[in-house]
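Treating backbone geometry as a discrete language has practical consequences that deserve illustration. The sequence in question and its structure tokens are set out directly beneath this paragraph.
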Amino acid sequence: MEMKRRTFLVTAATAPLGFAAGHLLAHSGNGEQAGKQLPAAIEKLQPMTDGVVPISSEERQSRILKAQKLMREEGMDAVILEPGTSMDYFLDFRFFRSERMVVALIPAEGEVVYVAPAFEKDKVEENVTIPGEVRTWHEHESPYKLVADYLKGLRKPQPTLGIEERLRFFLYDGIRLEEPAVHFRLATPVTAGCRMFKSAAELALIKRAMDVTLTAYQALAECLREGMSQDEVRELCAEAHRRLGFDGGIMANFAEASAFPHGSRQPQQLKKGDVILIDGGCSVEDYHSDISRTWVFGKPSQRQIDVWNVVKEAQAAAFAAVKPGVLCSQIDAVARKIISDAGFGPDYTYFTHRVGHGIGMDGHEWTYLVRGNETPLAPGMCFSDEPGIYIGGEFGVRLEDCFYVTETGARFFTEPSPAIDQPFA
């Protein structure tokens, strides 16, 4: 079972970007308009926040119980987490990172223990939602000794500590030097073993995030005009997400720049006949959307139509191949064969990336639809389905919709694009 993390960070999707002064809608602190009027398609958007249900404490407790079961199966006595996605997932605990250790230890049996600086104890306790003892250290003391003492208290001659993949090296190294008897294991079989499989509550949050982003995209498409820069398009989409009640944004690229899978930094102005490729999303209660749309501003050429249709066929074939028990690698192979057989091969020549990634509380997370990943698909797993063809010096096409695995196949969160001149179903 492949558990290696392969992370693409598309910073352009959420970075603040400039928008031309003649079109910027500024906001005061209370959200009132303080600038020029937005395009009507953006102006009319209404919040989509009604009915959003956060993850309950009961569900988080069930996650901890599952993690503890997996720890026992994997021979781990505890797992250590520091602030980040997995800590949020299990403990609903949010804290900043610094050079000072703030961690949580989830044992294979028993209650959670938090370790933090003594002067932060009140703040830590204020943020604790899953009960557990808070052990503290003063500035001249070693936080690593606190962790070592905790592990000794488990009364195992050589305790095994699972290290969450994002735990920084200096924390691991400090514990290792403090207590050489500790065995260390990567905790991914536990963390991914829980997070890969989404509950009904998680699927509902992802679905809402997808619906929000698709609504923002549809409004954006009505606002495009010749001469627009990619930064203007990005800012309009960010504003659309804000109008819908959530923070979100996109990467936008035109013409030759669309052949860069994750965008070009070169200034771009939209003109008739340009391919437009947008990719991004938002977060709803920490659960992400990720959607790509490609179409043409104006009338598409036959070349653009032909390439788009190949990508569409590959996306549909990958989706149709999804069934419980099918290996992740097989889904990538199905899409890649269609693209190669259409003359855009061999292999990664024009389809330069995997066909999909897991999605949940991280935009890209376990596991991946990629060659070599022999993980079998199972109900509750969520993925992007995003084949692409990128032709340097011409244009690129990527179509991305996310789906979740069901007992019998798969279900898209959003309806894929029907045609190059109809990017939205």
Confidence is low (pLDDT under 50) at residues 1-34. The first strand starts at residue 78 and ends at 81.
